[in-house]
Specification:
homodimer, Rossmann fold, DNA polymerase, domain 1, 6-stranded parallel beta sheet, elongated
Chain lengths: ~230, ~230
């Protein structure tokens, strides 16, 4: 089997992301604690995020707008303006948070880049993803960066034809079964799940454990070894 | 001179955009009218937009967040929550506004697409730009779509090598001297300015009237003719 191209997810595969969302989420709950029931607040925010996804897409700006909307709606407009100001600040802080590669990522990417064309494939805010890649110091290891609005079968087909030799000679590695694994397999690529301790509710899905082109790995450090066994 | 590739800006070149921002801007002023001096409000919003550009990038979500921030700051937190709810609604409406190609655009693109590879090159929110292109019905005329975080010389060099035969055999057409003309000329491409009646303050710049590879056109309908004279 010939593999020429490795697609890599960014958030929660190369660096922490969901942790940061959870921390901001907790800060949001604490801010609203005097004004709204916690369980109701959680479900209203999840609903707003889901409802706004088709308008706002993925990323911090949309999340910030959904938090503000939820704070207003759940209090029937009685939320103190000070709380909205805090939500805005929390969003801005997420956008300026330092980016640290996860342990072992840098070495694994350096190894992979000697044999394969590396393509970063991620969704989220275009500018913010580019800034995180620059801040991570990993940018030079990638032959291409594709920020897409949705990770579906068509997106993987397009990206792997554009930057590689087609999906059949590519492997996608990431932490989301729904976004990184299933559509990449559908496109005809290989796929490696590298679980992150937290999964965003929207991304939850069951891994296709018996698929012949699928493997779950403990960390990105195991990817070069798996690819060697395929050769 | 051989031209193989035509880059086209989207907002205010293919369809109205600044008009929609101005309408929302007017709505924002009207909402805050009882709470803040209009001239001060205008300049505070412009400052917030400029300051947030490096964090939020271009597009409706960032504009919405800057309006909310300005409404809170200028009233020292005394803005009614109802006003913030209205700002959120105005932002959502911008994202769902119907998209109509400007007069003559469809015919001009159809003509151009027979001889040249058309590439849409735009900044803004990734998802929103894709949605506008889909809603415009113009998507099939383009060989490629590139949504970039900043339109600078490097972006044009990359895009015209990736999707064409290099910048020297490409022309960029758009309404912004700062974003569409100057950096495209710097990259070695030709450039056609197609003025739109309104220009965002951030994009104001002086046209390089005497540049040998530059031309100002009255409308996109004049682009095929100009390209014929170059051949």
């Amino acid at each position: 089997m010939r593999i020429t191209t490795v697609g890599l997810d960014a958030d929660d595969t190369l660096w922490h992301n969901e942790t940061l969302f959870r921390l901001t989420h907790a800060r949001f709950l604490a801010l609203l604690e005097p004004h709204a029931d916690e369980a109701a607040l959680q479900s209203r925010l999840a609903e707003a995020e889901q409802r706004n996804l088709r308008l706002y897409g993925y990323g911090v700006k949309g999340f910030t707008l959904s938090m503000i909307e939820t704070a207003i709606e759940i209090t029937h407009g009685d939320v103190p303006v000070r709380v909205i100001r805090e939500i805005l600040a929390a969003g801005r802080e997420m956008l300026t948070e330092p980016v640290e590669p996860l342990p072992g990522v840098e070495t694994a990417l350096a190894q992979l880049s000697e044999k394969y064309r590396l393509v970063l494939i991620t969704k989220g805010d275009l500018l913010h993803q580019e800034q995180k890649l620059a801040a991570s110091g990993l940018g030079d290891l990638f032959a291409a960066v594709e920020i897409v609005s949705e990770k579906d079968r068509g997106a993987y087909e397009r990206v792997f034809s554009r930057h590689g030799t087609g999906a059949a000679e590519a492997v996608m590695a990431g932490n989301s079964v729904k976004s990184d694994i299933i559509p990449a397999l559908e496109a005809g690529a290989w796929a490696a799940l590298i679980p992150y301790p937290l999964v965003w509710a929207h991304e939850a899905a069951t891994a296709p454990k018996d698929h012949p082109r699928y493997r779950e790995l403990a960390s990105l450090a195991d990817l070069p070894g798996w690819l060697d066994t395929l050769a």
